[in-house]
Design a protein that fits this description.
Blueprint (H helix, E strand, L loop, with lengths): L13 E4 L15 E2 L17 E9 L2 E8 L17 E9 L6 E6 L7 E2 H8 L3 E4 L17 E3 L2 E4 L10 E7 L4 E5 L1 E9 L5 E3 L2 E2 L24 E5 L12 E5 L5 E5 L11 E5 L3 H9 L4 E9 L11 E7 L1 E4 L2 E2 L14 E7 L3 E7 L11 H10 L4 E4 L8 E3 L2 E2 L10 E2 L1 E6 L7
Parallel strand pairs: 1-2, 15-16
Antiparallel strand pairs: 1-3, 3-4, 4-5, 5-25, 6-30, 7-29, 8-27, 8-30, 9-10, 9-21, 11-12, 11-21, 13-14, 13-20, 16-19, 17-18, 17-19, 22-23, 22-26, 24-25, 24-26, 27-28
């Protein structure tokens, strides 16, 4: 039997049988035991007669962790996708914005191109608790590259994916000064402009590897390619070395002036340098823009209705897939395939204006079978979330408290991830 480890650093503060409304968790008195009765709201998972036990622990002022176990009998492996007897292991981290002393932020490891375990990201940041964040890792050479929006300390280091590529992307943005969250799809614009000639080059990507068009991969001179290519801006946040390959690359200093130009891609960036890479016929346009003078860069983020998002050192964001609650209305994602089947899940949302709620649901195990997307939406509704988004899940789903595992990730080991949403028990200060 696989079960979630229980760290010795936490003491049981309350046990609730069959559940209570989550909105009242921060007021639950310690060492109070309640039986099922009027007003309780058990999770809408499986058959109604399942035993459900909730344990509430206070992690910091205004911060509680609720462990929910629904069902007691381990599932047979072949029954995990369909059983209505569970069991389910759900962890709910609740942050009361009115009383909590600390702040939420998003953190990544040494650079964006690599991955680190959530427990390590939580521990190194000095956080009380945290969970995995963005979807990531389409390119196995750069597994930490977020697949969609990534904002860290006010820096747009990964662009939101276009609707044609990720129609269900829905992002989470947070203000670390107030712990206010916003949800929704975003768009962006990226340009570099020659200050002397005013010539403009549009960007397709930020900190994302680009490809050489078919038919141009054997050209000695990449500027001879006549097919559409890509242009990407790289910062040292991606890594000390940019991706290699055919194309052109120009390295710029902090003032935006070109210090190095090569008709091949892949170079080492030193402190405060950044670079531009291009493939296809974009190689010629990039060389024309940067041939002389210095460049100014502009990266702008917009809401779905084209309102510009003001980013500052307090701004952080991750990408998600599918809204699960919008203004109190539960949204049940539709679709087919393994993504919509029972899996481990990570969800972030809000209850009213006061509470931030972060949820993990273990899955793919006899000890916890996981939830379909529709079951996940039902859990969101039963816990009272008015806004919610589904973050990366599956083997990535991890919750950590002070660098120790709280849940039981699927698979044989904790999966390294791109970034983590963490809570630090201290007021926000820029880093």
């Amino acid at each position: 039997m696989m079960s979630a480890p229980h760290s010795g650093r936490f003491r049981c503060r309350a046990v609730l049988l069959a559940g209570t409304a989550l909105a009242g968790l921060s007021t639950v008195a310690p060492t109070v035991e309640q039986a099922a009765g009027a007003g309780t709201v058990p999770l809408p998972l499986g058959v109604p007669d399942l035993v459900e036990v909730r344990t509430v622990e206070t992690l910091a002022t205004g911060v509680t962790l609720t462990r929910i176990r629904r069902g007691t009998t381990p599932a047979e492996p072949d029954q995990i996708p369909t059983t209505r007897r569970g069991p389910w292991l759900v962890n709910v981290l609740t942050i009361d914005r009115a009383s909590a002393r600390g702040h939420l932020r998003v953190t990544h490891g040494a650079d964006l191109s690599r991955t680190e375990p959530t427990t390590q990201l939580v521990g190194l940041s000095g956080a009380v608790a945290g969970v995995n964040g963005s979807f990531f890792g389409v390119d196995p050479r750069y597994p930490g590259d977020p697949v969609g929006l990534g904002v860290y300390g006010g820096h747009l280091l990964s662009e939101p994916a276009p609707a044609a590529v990720a129609p269900n992307e829905s992002d989470l943005l947070l203000d670390a000064r107030t712990n206010r969250l916003s949800f929704g799809r975003h768009t962006w614009s990226g340009t570099v402009t020659n200050r002397a000639s005013r010539r403009v080059q549009h960007l397709e990507f930020v900190n994302h590897n680009i490809v050489v068009p078919l038919g141009c991969r054997k050209l000695v001179d990449p500027t001879m390619c006549t097919r559409d290519g890509d242009v990407s801006l790289f910062t040292r946040a991606f890594g000390a070395r940019t991706p290699p390959g055919r194309g052109v690359e120009m390295v710029l200093n902090r003032s935006g002036c070109v210090v190095r130009l090569a008709r091949t891609r892949g170079t080492t960036l030193v402190r405060r340098q950044w670079s531009l890479q291009a493939t296809g016929r974009d190689t010629r346009s990039l060389l024309a823009v940067g041939a002389s003078g210095c460049l100014s860069r502009s990266l702008r983020l917009f809401t779905s209705n084209r309102q510009r998002v003001r980013l500052g050192s307090w701004s952080f964001g991750v990408n998600g897939r599918h809204r699960l609650a919008v203004n109190g209305r539960v949204v049940v994602p539709t679709g087919s395939g393994s993504f919509y089947d029972r899996n481990p899940r990570t969800v972030v949302g809000t209850i009213g204006t006061r509470q931030v709620v972060i949820i993990t649901i273990d899955g793919r195990q006899p000890s916890s079978v996981g939830t379909t997307m529709s079951e996940t939406a039902a859990v969101v509704g039963s816990l009272g979330l008015r806004q919610a988004v589904n973050l990366d899940g599956g083997g990535s789903t991890t919750m950590s408290v002070r660098g120790e595992l709280v849940n039981q990730p699927s698979g044989n080991a904790e999966r390294p991830v791109a970034d983590a949403l963490v809570y630090l028990d201290e007021p926000f200060t820029p880093r």
